[in-house]
Amino acid sequence: MANMVVWIAGAKWKIRHCKVPPTIHGDCNYERRTIRISDKLAGEDRLNTLIHECVHARFPDLAEDCVGEFSDTLAAIVHHAGFRSEEEEENG
User: Fold this and answer.
1) Average pLDDT, stretch 51-73?
2) Residue 15 has pLDDT above 90, yes or no
3) pTM of the full predicted structure?
4) Rounded mean pLDDT of 1-27?
5) DSSP string of the chain, one letter each residue
6) Per-residue confidence (pLDDT) for residue 92, from 0 to 100
7) How many CB atoms lie within 10 A of CB 14?
8) What is the CATH number of the domain that holds 23?
9) What band does 24 get if pLDDT is binned at 50, 70 and 90?
10) What does the alpha-carbon distance between residue 26 and residue 49 come to, in Å, rounded to a whole number?
11) What domain range is 25 assigned to?
12) For residue 53, which of 73, 74, 25, 21 has the smallest C-alpha distance?
């Protein structure tokens, strides 16, 4: 997946798909306005992590359990509705 720039709450954020420590799937750096997503993730796991970190960027004071519950729910709904990444579409 390509890196991208997005606007979250009126601020420009970079989303990078790259190597991250093996103990995490992604992270959100508020000072640099950068979200990192593990380049090892695919499918619903990558979608879930992307949503999770974007929610952190938008709502930095939201409790981790709320962020996790919301990202799990939304990723499952979007995936179940049939939305897929270009890589998933190409691989069938």
Assistant:
1) 97
2) yes
3) 0.91
4) 94
5) ---EEEEETTEEEEEEEE---TT-SEEEETTTTEEEEETT--HHHHHHHHHHHHHHHH-TTS-HHHHHHHHHHHHHHHHHTT---HHHHHT-
6) 64
7) 14
8) 3.30.2010
9) very high
10) 6
11) 4-90
12) 25
Task: Give the closest residue to 54 by CA, choosing from 83, 88, 19, 14.
Answer: 14
Task: Give the chain's domain count.
Answer: 1
Query: Residue 49 above 80 pLDDT?
Result: yes
pLDDT at residue number 62: 97
What count of other Cβ atoms lies within 10 Å of the Cβ of residue 84? 15
CB atoms within 10 A of CB 81: 7
Report residue 10 as tokens.
């009126």
